[in-house]
Every structure is written in C-alpha cells, then in structure tokens.
Amino acid sequence: MQATLLSVLGLALLGALHAQDSIPVQADFQQDKLTGRWYSIGLASNSNWFKEKRHLMKMCTTIISTTSDGNLEVTSTYPKGDQCVTRNSLYTKMEQPGRFSYTSPRWGSTHDIRVVETNYEEYALVATQISKSTGPSTMVLLYSRTKELSPERLEKFTQFSREQGLTDDEILILPQTGEAGGTGE
C-alpha cells in the first residue's frame, strides 16, 4: 500500500515537473527590448487569491527595467479601492534567457517566470509556475504596450492559458480603469 502511494506521488511529481518543462521560452530572447512600460491586459490563474479577488481586478501599469547585475526590476501599479498601490519585485535571471525566478517575501512562494512569447513592441505573454506551502499554481499574464490589444492576441492568451490547464472561469481580460480610478500613471 505504501509503495503504491509513493509510486502515485512520484508520478504526480514527475507529471508536474514535465508540465513545467513543457512551457516554452521566447527564442532569441532580448531582455533589453522587454524594458519599459506595459499594461496588464489579461490574467489567468488557478490560485485561491485569484478566485477570491477576480471580481475586483483591473488593468495595471507595469514598468520593467534592468538592474546593474542583469536582473529585472518589475514595478506594478494597480488600483485598490480609491487608491493606487505600487508593488516592486526583483526577478532574478536564470541560465536560460527569458526565464527568471522570484521569491515572494510576503508569502514565501517561489516563482518560475518565463517570457513565452513577445514581439517587444506590442505584447508579451508570460507564464509563471508558483510553488507555495499550500500547493502549486499557475499564472499567465498578457502584457501590452497600449491599453488595447487585437482580438487575435487576446485569443492567443486565452488558448495558451487553456493549454496550461486553466479553465475559462480562471481566465480574465482585465477591465480598464477610468481616469478617476487611476491607472498608476
């Protein structure tokens, strides 16, 4: 019985690792071209916080810059109630270009971040595998240089999110904020 349970757990872990390795990374990734202002257009996640906060989420502004040691500083500003909140994160580059790691000081979770696809001037599709004490989760973000993106890009985001095992109610095209609510600009 115990051997069977260990076998099942081993296969589940192997499947999770395989799923993580199947997430592609942008070929010939050019980090300097990813820097600058982006808008979060789409967000998909199977995490509990997303399910709880989904109805409150709105588009946010993200500024990506390169640090002196080649990592990424990611500053996101998003509306929360009648205020704008800013969150800074440091994404540490990994050996593979376009792949980064991040550890949340608040939650203790580790994030394997991959720039899946980008043309640098219009959109970026980013996938994150999150490991947390409460279990793993997946997050997919769609960034745009403008507040609107073509239906084809939105569909690509939705399709990719589904390929990562996310359901339609875990996929959200973020509503724009009105000028009164602020966009963090």
Looking at CATH, which topology would you report? Lipocalin
What's the CATH H-level homologous superfamily? Calycin beta-barrel core domain
Structural class: alpha+beta
Overall body shape: globular
In the CATH classification, which architecture applies? Beta Barrel
Query: What is the helix/strand order?
Result: HHEHEEEEEEEHE
Output the number of helix runs: 4
Q: Indicate the percent of residues in helices.
A: 10-25%
Radius of gyration: 17 Å
Question: How large is the share of residues in beta strands?
Answer: 35-45%
Q: What strand order characterises the main sheet?
A: 1-2-3-4-5-6-7-8
How many β strands by DSSP?
A: 9
Q: How many structural domains?
A: 1
Average per-residue pLDDT, rounded, comes to: 86
Could you give the distance between the termini?
59 Å
Taking the sheet with the most strands, its summary is: 8 strands, antiparallel, barrel
Give the CATH level 1 class: Mainly Beta
Low-confidence blocks of residues: 1-20, 179-185
